[in-house]
Amino acid sequence: MHPPCAFAANCLLAAGIALGFCTSLALAQEQAQGPARAEPPPAAAFFQNPAVLSAELSPSGRQLALSTAAGSTRVGLVLVDLGETIRLRRVAQFSDADVMAFHWVGDGQLVFSLADLSSGSGDNQVGAPGLYVVATDGGRPRQLVQHRIRRVVTDGGPLGREPLPWHHQLLQVPQVAAGDAQEEVIVGDFAFTSSNDLRSVNPLWLNVRSGRTRGMDLQAPVGAQGWWFDSRGRARAVLTRNDGVQALHWRAPGQDGWKKIAQGSLLGLPFMPRFVDDEGTLIVSHAHGREGTSVLSRFDFGTGRPEPVPWVSTPGFDFEGSVIAREDGTGLAGVRTRTDAETTTWLDPAYSALQALADERLPGRVNRLSCRRCTAPDAVMLVQSWSDRDPGQLWLYQAQDKQWRRVALMRPGIVPAQMATVDFQRIRARDGRDLPVWLTLPPGRQPGQPGPAVVLVHGGPWVRGGHWQWEPMAQFLASRGYLVIAPEFRGSQGYGQAHFRAGWKQWGQAMQDDLADALLWAQKQGLASDQVCIAGASYGGYATLMGLVRHPELYRCGVAWVAVTDPFLFLEGSFWINDDISAAGRRHTLPELVGDPKTDAAMLTAVSPLAQAERLRAPLLLAFGESDLRVPLAHGKRLRAALRDAGREPEWVTYPNEAHSWRLPETRTDFAQRVEAFLARHLRAAPANKP
Q1: Which DSSP symbol is given to 312?
Q2: Which of 194, 413, 442, 549 is 20 to 30 A from 471, alpha carbon to alpha carbon?
Q3: For helices 665-679 and 472-479, what crossing angle results, to 10°?
Q4: Mean pLDDT, to the nearest integer, of 542-549?
């Protein structure tokens, strides 16, 4: 039990003693600033679930909702009344499920989905989240949409009709005019083909009080799969996919029909919608300039193209972020972008003033704010604040009394002063291509003192890997004394179309060379010694295996989890092995991105870890989820058998009921401890000269 805490202006959770997550100001300051202990934190501190999963102010700003497991073994929904007296109460709690995403429906109701965080990811990957509603003035949760696999029982009474089938999911909670009651949300009815590919999504209005639905009379184009709505829930844009072709269609205010405004392959459209407003403005992202970095532009319906001068550009980075509407839906409030770190540019002086208050209170950090009554004297602001060394804190500011209150530390077991700093560099690959690289620098490591390193390869691979923020695995490895080198190799997204396309059909080739070039650069800078291991999950696991094949002189060992080991199995599938790779992906995109199993067979064999198993000679730790459908366990078993036949048995672990990601904290902790022991054996105790 926590010691009693008197309520303090800067310690909001002191009011939550009954929920079991009281955090005193002194403890919070110690965790935020140090001093650092001699011993690094235990592995479990890095891989526990956050104390708060999500937080959102009500539309009026008079209440705050939190999803948290504080005071319980399950994540529930907690409501904080932000009156003169702070009051907390649980509005949703289950014995067999955890509250995940939630949204306000007006000030009187919350809708939310559920998952089972006490079971591995294998139990949830083919499920659906369901949908529930709970009134904030009392009563118990009621079910609106069923789960696919399991049924969570609520005792809130019937809605007067059966819940919708599992294939309905929440699409949007529209805004309503001030003072109007809000009872409807938009859900999508998802239809699938016999091969489990998405065929179409049909939007419906769902009344959260009665559970009844009504159609939207959209006359949607065939194959509608993605929708964009204005703030009132009126459909403005739709993405269709049919036979390997995707297209965008637009419906202007006051019109009933749809007009096609773009068409392309599944690997690319000339632009994508990012924001629509109530007046019919469309803002899109599109490639711009020599490197094809993504920018934001207003769409010109007269020319049928984005305006030639970008509205928002982030040189060197694709636009990543969001356009933020004013809280009344009447226009734009600002734009949030992520280059190396996240920043928000506000168009309204009142919002800018609130951002300045947050940045002054919490300097040197990313401070993401949301506000209610933002331009009024009694504005309420919620701030999620983080840095490279701090996993995050939640703060509340009420302008009327100018009070700052700390709501929560996202990971109370982490002391930022003990954490590593994160640096972002741009270097040159061997062919001259710009190569972004993230470095996580162990605490106390001085320039010119090279030490052991881990090249940590992100999965995907067609995603962006790093940001200026706290990341569990990189920080865990750095806490054990390893420099972590995380390259954004070609094929990664986030750095322009040219960088993305340079990785097509380059698995195990130029993509692999980028990893080696990042390590060689770090060694030349005096940051990394010759004691290096390569590690990664999914594609990162594949690249780990191919790193040991292609550049054995650089790496003493490898750690690969949920790794693709057989490109042919990945690209073609097997009648005997179940996976979740879509038929459309295997037919239209993977042959372009990775290779065609027929015409590129020789190349794919040359870059297959399974086919090249004889060349895998370094110590290797392999880990797989036994319920993985993205990279089935067969990938691991086949490689293990090939290595065993070659007389080089790898270290091996599988996790029952885990899939492509480790959901259970105990799984993540166990695996991290295995990695720590493996690296300690093969790096720190390694001889001065490589074999």
Answers
A1: B
A2: 549
A3: 40
A4: 98
